[in-house]
Amino acid sequence: AGSGDLVLGGQADEAQYSVAGSGDLTASGLKVKSVNASVAGSGDITCHATDYLKARTTGSGSIGYKGKPKELDLPKKNIYEL
């Protein structure tokens, strides 16, 4: 909660990202098989999902993704492909 910025890189099997407030999480350099991402507020997340992505936003924040995940669970509100 609040504001801040975080940049991640590498590889992982699973990741859960959550931003509350106005912070930004840049994880497009972290290649992950299964991602669960949520933004509440005006923050932003960018991520890299290869197999599964669940993304949720409330407020004006957004989630950008790359990696062509095989399964998507997203409402299309403020969600975009990088």
UniProtKB/TrEMBL annotation:
Pfam families: DUF2807 (PF10988). Residues 1-69 form the Putative auto-transporter adhesin head GIN domain. Gene3D superfamilies: 2.160.20.120. This is DUF2807 domain-containing protein. It comes from Candidatus Bacteroides pullicola. The lineage of its organism: Bacteria, Pseudomonadati, Bacteroidota, Bacteroidia, Bacteroidales.
